[in-house]
Write a structure and sequence with these properties.
Helix content of chain A: over 70%
Largest interface: A-B, 43 and 54 residues
CATH topology of chain A: MetI-like fold
CATH architecture of the largest domain in chain C: Roll
Strand content of chain A: under 5%
Distance between the termini of chain A: 23 Å
CATH class of chain A: Mainly Alpha
Number of domains of chain C: 3
Helix content of chain C: 25-40%
Number of strands of chain A: 0
Structural class of chain A: mainly alpha
Oligomer: heterotrimer
Number of helices of chain A: 10
CATH superfamily of the largest domain in chain C: Dipeptide-binding Protein, Domain 3
Order of helices and strands of chain A: HHHHHHHHHH
Shape of chain C: globular
CATH topology of the largest domain in chain C: Dipeptide-binding Protein, domain 3
Strand content of chain C: 15-25%
Chains: A mainly alpha, B mainly alpha, C alpha+beta
Chain lengths: ~280, ~325, ~550
């Protein structure tokens, strides 16, 4: 006898069966924990300079060594998780909200609204992320909030396209037409009938794109366009270490490992999530 | 049995489509130009101050602003920009007064060789890897391939570059880590291309492997493949005749899409390897507030993206005649 | 007999020549083309017009291509020597210069060189005084230049000036470089930026964007033909690239990183010589006395006691950073050394600092708000350390890192509660006038410049009256007795330090590395050219 199981539960099962994805989720969770617990688990104050002990190679007292100012790299890497994860998730959420609204609006309204939104999307997607990102940050200026906004601007067009296509087909469904015919308001149709149907996929892609956003943050920080010092961020740390690559490799290498692990975690997780939502790929 | 689609070429239809597709690109390019122009103008920072340095008096800065035309109305500057571009004139660098077109001519080959080598490397290694892992789905090679490609996707371009520099330039001292080499000296040029090319190539391989794998998997589920297999056709024939041909379309578009990602990556690779190129030009122009150079470089980047999108679409049509040209 | 004698003499002579010749062959071969390659930390040049050049890599080329009427003695900026002018007379505010004869302008673009005369000198100085054609026009306000005859130039100043103040304007520095009139007019100002034509030991040959400038020796140089045949100036913004170039021998001289670890690393390498030299640039923090709570002298006093010059010098590195304890560096006439400044050095004393803060009403420190600073290492590195130091006294500083030119624009709009400024000025008057005269107060001054502390415009010590050192600066400027002038300048600085308007940190020296076989041809102590000058005496 087979028990009826809800689609949601089935999805969870599929996800849990994918061991690599579970590993990714665990890793991502660990990173989030590190970010939250940074103040308690980091051995030193990440801002405490001691210029007389600069460029100490990894040793017992400083497991990952020290940087130019004599700051403890382990502590800075732990604290750096906060900025990366914050920027990564906040910018994706912001981009998702705006992209989702605009994408659904475009598809639902059609006509001029649609062509205006979709052409603007085309134009924004006509720049490589790094190129457009540099320009936006240069215009906005640096700072945590501005960085989030800049990356959200880069993420939004992706969500617009992602929300646009399914809304188009949903709009034609009978129940939507029926709802329209009996005079249900547009806002209500969108929130009741369209949003729930596309939200799952948006969320899955959103998770995957958190990794992308973290990578973009690192790229911009590496170019010196990220959160200003003294806030430790992984990209900034790599950037400052670049000049001393030949004599103090540890300054750049360890924060890089942190970025790599975090993005990898989100990619692993997103990979599994996609399998769950894409029935075609289900074995 | 569904027939495997044949490659056919409808020349008239195709050309009509191509023309329409090109026409669509024009308003997009115009919008891109406008955005670039405006962004470069609202960006803070004063090129006049940048040129004169800290010693300059306020009058000198004002005088230079005047002379550089920075005080002219925005629409006039915009008109100059568009008219100049239409004539193929990119203007002169605000800092050195040197024609931007000549700087671009110097930098462009470096960016192109870098990006192309990345794309080719990625295609050459990524497609076979993708096929191989797809055909061995859920077996060890597939897992390894999956982990490899996901790891590749997770690497910030510049960090992979740094690791390659550490390994091959600093410790093994096999290849130069800095500069682009002499364009007129093939050996020197190639030696300088190895590490940056490998950086982009490895990342491209990761993308291509992953996407080829999934498009092959998609095709494997199609009816005609199942039918072909059930008819007892030899596996190799099935792969070549049916699977590859049909998987090619998405693979082409993937290479197109990721070429754009790669162009963005090339910017960082140029900075890490201190290579001449558009990326280095752009960051340099940004630091000096050289609006003219900055907008030219951005336009070229965007032009590449629009062009790649166009070519991808056209190639799509070429390979798959089922696509409606409308 | 005569014929025989003659011919045998010829034969002997020939024989001797052949002998000498063969002996010289290896020598000649190794010296066939003496090319010196120098690499700078820059992506590209900015401008080679000497009246605009301000960055290190540009000043270097300009230095090799042009001359001034007088020059700083190579390697030592405390002594002036004749350059294009052979001699001069002064009569009150009128200076007359007698030009050296037979000085040739370099050939350019197919045009032959020609003899430099008073016409060129007047043209050049007029250009330097024109705000549209020079970044240094402010230095020449009110001055007139006239050609008395072909080899005599008369310069009339609005008021009489001492040599210390006047010579930098006409020396081989900034606006004082003399350009060749016909070349500038022929090429136009824009093309001249990448095709400089002057009278110096090296002539411009070619420019490859983002790569290099090639200079060749000027065989007609008036001090004699240079020993080097060519100088290649390379633009390489990556320090690792410059290092490896020096190691492989592709480069002979490289601009270093002004950081202790780099100096130590390079000094340890065999076959490499590191030169650090002055005068360097002063690094000073200016407290903005119009922003709360910096308007309270006790707060500024506390901050002066809170900061540790020693720690910052250690952070930058003693090889590069030399402590600076007064606004004018001691290398200049009127400067004050750290020993002489005494109690006004404000040696770090956290206890006193905290007590003063408490007295001012901030027992736990305060939030100083946002401070705009440049993304360049020369600003960002000290600023980050200062930020950490102030945090020890509970003073929170939020850095806003912007691009270099934006910083220059923003700080001139008076946005900062404190301004870190890295600069060199050619004399005490320029330092004092531009940073501490009321006319130079940012935004509101009569001639807004770089007075970030607002000294001269505010009541600095809370006694109810405005504190100004304007009259000291002005009296010193027109003082012709050197000793008295120096005394006035020093007094002005004591005032500034007493009012806690600024806190001088250190002098940042320049760092270059070279192959040991490079011989500059003079002793390098200090130079305004910002690089180890390469002249006719330099060899390798």
């Amino acid at each position: 006898m087979t028990r009826m199981i809800s689609p949601r539960r089935r999805m969870l099962r599929t996800f849990l069966r994918n061991k690599t994805s579970v590993a990714g989720a665990a890793l991502a969770l660990a990173m989030i924990l590190v970010a939250v617990l940074a103040p308690w688990i980091s051995p030193y104050n990440p801002l405490k300079q001691n210029v007389y002990y600069r460029f100490t190679p990894p040793e017992a007292s400083h497991p990952l060594g020290t940087d130019f100012y004599g700051c403890d790299i382990l502590s800075r890497v732990l604290w750096g998780a906060r900025v990366s994860l914050l920027v990564g998730t906040a910018s994706v959420l912001l981009g998702m909200v705006f992209g989702m609204v605009l994408g659904m609006l475009a598809a639902y309204k059609g006509g001029r609204v649609e062509s205006a939104i979709m052409r603007a999307t085309d134009v924004m997607m006509s720049f490589p992320d790094e190129v457009f990102g540099i320009m936006i940050v240069v215009v906005l200026g640096s700072g945590l909030l501005k960085l989030v906004i800049a990356i959200a601007i880069l993420m939004a067009p992706r969500f617009i396209r992602l929300a646009h296509a399914p809304t188009l087909s949903l709009k034609e469904r009978d129940y939507v037409s029926a709802a329209r015919a009996i005079g249900v308001s547009d806002a209500r149709i969108i929130t009741k009938h369209i949003l729930p149907n596309i939200f799952g996929e948006l969320l899955v892609m959103g998770t995957l794109w958190v990794g992308t956003a973290i990578r973009l943050e690192a790229n911009l920080s590496f170019l010196g366009l990220g959160v200003p010092p003294p806030t430790p961020t992984w990209g900034n740390m790599i950037r400052t270490g670049m000049d001393h690559l030949t004599d103090a490799w540890w300054v750049s290498v360890f924060p890089g490992v942190a970025i790599l692990l975090t993005v990898f975690a989100f990619n692993l997780m997103g990979d599994g999530l996609r399998d769950v939502t894409d029935p075609k790929l289900r074995a | 049995m569904a027939p495997a689609p044949q490659l056919r070429y409808h020349s008239d239809e195709m050309i009509g489509y191509a023309i329409r597709r090109i026409l669509i690109s024009i308003p997009i390019l115009l919008a891109v130009l406008t955005i670039v122009f405006l962004l470069a103008r609202v960006a803070p920072g004063d090129p006049a101050q940048a040129i004169l340095g800290d010693y300059a008096s306020k009058e000198a800065v004002q005088a230079l602003r005047e002379r550089m035309g920075l005080n002219r109305p925005l629409w006039q500057q915009y008109l100059d920009f568009i008219v100049g571009l239409a004539r193929g004139n990119l203007g002169k660098s605000m800092i050195t007064g040197f024609p931007v077109a000549r700087q671009v001519a110097y930098a462009l080959p470096y960016t192109i060789e870098l990006t192309l080598s990345g794309i080719i490397f990625g295609a050459v290694f990524g497609i076979p890897l993708g096929i191989y892992t797809a055909l061995r789905r859920n077996r060890l090679p597939d897992y390894l391939g999956r982990i490899f490609s996901l790891a590749g996707l997770s690497f910030p371009t510049f960090y992979l570059g740094i690791l390659l520099i550490l390994a091959f330039a600093v410790w093994l001292k096999l290849f130069p880590a800095v500069g682009g080499g002499d364009l007129h000296n093939l050996g020197d040029n190639l030696r300088h291309l190895v590490l940056p090319g490998l950086t982009l190539g490895l990342i491209m391989t990761a993308y291509v492997t992953r996407m080829s794998r999934s498009s092959i998997l998609n095709v494997l589920n199609e009816d005609y493949v199942r039918t072909a297999r059930s008819k007892g056709l030899r596996e190799r024939i099935v792969i070549y005749k049916h699977i590859l041909k049909n998987a090619l379309i998405p693979i082409i578009s993937i290479i197109g899409v990721y070429s754009i990602v790669l162009i963005g990556g090339s910017l960082l690779v140029e900075i890490v390897f201190s290579r001449p190129g558009l990326g280095k030009m752009m960051v340099g122009a940004m630091l000096q507030r050289d609006y003219i150079t900055l907008q030219s470089v951005m336009v070229i980047y965007a032009g590449f993206v629009v062009l790649i999108n166009l070519l991808t679409d056209l190639a799509y049509g070429l390979v798959d005649p089922r696509i409606k040209y409308d | 007999m005569r014929e025989f004698f003659g011919s045998s003499l010829v034969k002997v002579g020939l024989g001797v020549l052949v002998l000498i010749g063969t002996a010289l062959v290896p020598l000649v071969q190794s010296q066939q083309e003496q090319v010196l390659t120098i690499a700078f930390d820059a992506a590209d040049l900015k401008t080679l017009d000497p009246h605009f050049a301000s960055a290190t890599m540009d000043r270097a080329v300009v230095d090799m291509v042009f001359n001034g009427l007088v020059r700083y003695k190579p390697g030592d900026i405390t002594v002036f020597e004749p350059d294009l002018a052979q001699s001069w007379q002064v009569n009150g505010n009128v200076w007359t210069f007698n030009l050296r004869r037979g000085v040739m302008c370099h050939p350019w673009g197919g045009n032959p060189g020609y003899e430099l005369t008073s016409e060129d000198v007047v043209y050049s100085l007029t250009k330097a005084a024109d705000a549209a054609r020079s970044a240094y026009s402010g230095e020449y306000t009110g001055m007139t230049f006239e050609a008395v005859d072909k080899y005599t130039v008369r310069i009339t100043l609005p008021t009489a000036l001492s040599e210390v103040l006047f010579f930098p304007k006409i020396a081989d520095y900034a606006g004082g470089f003399i350009v060749c009139k016909k070349a500038v007019e022929d090429l136009g100002d824009d093309a001249f930026k990448t095709n400089p034509v002057g009278t110096g030991p090296f002539m411009f040959q070619s420019y490859s964007p983002m790569e290099k400038v090639v200079l060749v020796k000027n065989p007609n140089y008036f001090r004699g033909a240079p020993k080097l045949d060519k100088v290649v100036v390379r633009y390489m913004s990556d320090v690792t690239a410059r290092e490896s170039g020096l190691e492989t021998g592709e480069l002979d001289v490289i601009e270093g990183r002004p950081e202790q670890p780099w100096v130590e690393k390079m000094q340890a390498k065999p076959g490499t010589v590191v030169d650090t030299f002055g005068p360097g640039e002063t690094v000073v923090i200016h407290w903005n006395m119009t922003k709360k709570p910096f308007d309270d002298i006790r707060v500024r006093w506390a901050l002066d006691f809170c900061l540790s010059r020693e720690e910052l010098v250690a952070a930058i590195g003693p090889a590069i950073a030399e402590p600076l304890c007064a606004p004018v560096p001691p290398v200049l006439a009127g400067g004050i050394s750290c020993t002489d400044v005494g109690v006004l050095r404000y040696d770090q004393n956290i206890e006193t600092a905290m007590a003063l803060l408490a007295e001012a009403g901030y027992p736990n420190g305060f939030d100083a708000g946002e401070v705009v600073t440049s993304e360049r290492a020369e600003y960002l590195i000290p600023m980050q350390n200062i930020q950490a130091q102030l945090a020890e006294c509970g003073v929170k500083v939020t850095l806003k890192v912007v691009d270099h030119s934006s910083m220059h624009t923003l700080i001139r709009q008076d946005v900062n509660p404190m301004v870190l400024y890295v600069a060199w000025r050619p004399n005490a008057d320029a330092f004092l006038t531009r940073f501490y005269h009321s006319a130079s107060i940012v935004v509101t001054g009569a001639k807004p410049d770089t007075n970030f502390s607002h000294i001269g415009g505010v009541d600095a010590d809370g006694d109810g009256s405005i504190d100004s050192i304007d009259s000291l600066i002005e009296t010193a400027r027109s003082e012709l007795i050197p000793g008295k002038q120096i005394w006035l300048w020093q007094k002005a600085q004591i005032e500034i330090m007493g009012l806690n308007a600024a806190y001088p940190f250190y002098i940042k020296k320049f760092v270059f590395a070279r192959k040991p076989n490079v011989n500059y041809g003079y002793t390098l102590i200090s130079t305004l050219a910002l690089y180890p000058p390469i002249n006719e005496l330099t060899s390798k």
